[in-house]
Specification:
single chain, alpha+beta, 3 domains, 6-stranded antiparallel β-sheet, 30% helix
Length: 384
């Protein structure tokens, strides 16, 4: 009897929280194989086809290979296995690692119950038959978890992991006195997209980017009002606002950090010596929360289709569109803050975008005309 192939939940994760570790902040994992510093992240536990996979922590760090810096990902604790492959970027290494872990779990879940697959997590192998017997009770209800239930768990995780604190931190005075905005959870963790340089110019042509507007006002190592205005712009762009009654206030770091800044103080212009770090409490905006509801909520239904047009689901948030049973397109839906996006593609692989709109009806209404245009081109081609 064949086993239904289950899809690992780690493939569905949109964002992930990371914790920086250095030789001095006390967060570095035990062992010498994790580099000098790096980033820790978790992949959640789950149950696939009755087999339980525990949450695992992984470290992403850089090493030198053939005179080139490359990123690696290794499991923390357990077997300390390298996961995935080398990559010149951290994003690439993480993508390879997540794909490798998901593949291992899916392969282990698809194997017969009597097997002891080598690809299974160490915790799963250690439990053996006794663990599977215990799982039949408390965990059997998770076996039939639907995608809706998975999305609900992911939604709860996203809400629990929302940043609650924003921080502006000055950098080394002799390095130009730049500043970085960092959004953090209550535990102090952050994500890469929530670490924003405030004193670097933004992308060319970006409208109202304060990184350009206030560039001259926020250099020289000063924690000025220009910095806070720039930070506020980025907070709104990311879907956050200041908590009610909250205001930027100086933040005192560790004793070693304060001692270092005291040593640097003579290098700074008068009046720019304090504060080197300020923080403020933040909350997600209503628009941000609504976006999370859409991103991890039920797939929206398509409106009434034009005559001759049919639609069939072809994947998460995508449909195959057919006209008169002779020509096909792909329609996809992507939730986004500031306005969701529906895209019509000319090919199943979704490599050739034809049009984008805020609602599916606008795109579906064009299908008959697109078919007529394609028919006309085909007829003209036959004449030649």
């Amino acid at each position: 009897m064949s086993t239904t192939t289950a899809r690992s939940i780690v493939r569905e994760i949109v964002t992930r929280s990371y914790r920086r570790y250095t030789p001095t902040n006390g967060r570095a994992p035990e062992g010498t194989e994790y580099g000098v510093d790096g980033w820790l992240f978790n992949l959640p536990g789950e149950t696939l086809n009755g087999r339980r996979f525990l949450q695992r922590t992984y470290a992403a760090y850089q090493v030198t290979r053939n005179a080139e810096l490359v990123w690696m990902v290794r499991e923390v604790g357990g077997e300390r296995r390298q996961v995935g492959s080398h990559s010149t970027t951290r994003k690439g290494a993480l993508a390879l690692a997540v794909g490798a872990v998901a593949h291992e779990r899916e392969k282990a879940a698809a194997a017969p119950e009597t097997d002891a697959p080598a690809t299974c997590d160490q915790g799963t192998r250690a439990r053996g038959a006794a663990g599977r017997t215990a799982a039949e009770g408390g965990e059997r209800s998770q076996v039939s978890a639907t995608m809706t239930e998975r999305l609900e768990r992911m939604r709860a995780g996203q809400l629990a992991g929302l940043p609650t604190v924003a921080e502006i931190r000055m950098t080394y005075p002799l390095a130009g006195g730049g500043a970085t905005l960092r959004l953090m959870t209550a535990e102090g963790s952050t994500t890469e997209r929530h670490m924003i340089p405030l004193t670097e110019r933004g992308a060319a042509g970006r409208e109202n980017d304060p990184a350009g507007i206030y560039l001259d006002a926020i250099t020289d190592g000063a924690n000025t009002e220009g910095l806070k205005i720039a930070a506020g712009w980025h907070l709104m762009r990311l879907g956050f606002n200041y908590a009610r009654g909250a205001a930027w206030a100086p933040y005192t770091g560790s004793a070693s950090s304060e001692a270092q800044w005291k040593e640097w103080a003579p290098m700074l212009p008068e009046g720019h010596r304090w504060p080197h770090t300020v923080r403020v409490a933040i909350t997600a905006t209503a628009e941000h929360l609504a976006y999370i509801d859409r991103a991890y909520g039920p797939v929206p239904e398509l409106p009434d289709l034009p005559a001759g047009v049919s639609a069939h689901p072809s994947g998460p948030r995508s449909w195959q569109i057919c006209y008169a049973n002779r020509r096909f397109w792909q329609l996809s839906y992507r939730p986004r803050m500031g306005g969701d996006v529906w895209t019509l593609y000319a090919d199943p692989a979704r490599t050739k975008s034809l049009a984008r709109a805020a609602s599916p009806g606008e795109l579906l209404a064009t299908i008959p005309a697109r078919d007529a245009e394609a028919q006309a081109r085909a007829t003209a081609g036959k004449r030649y």
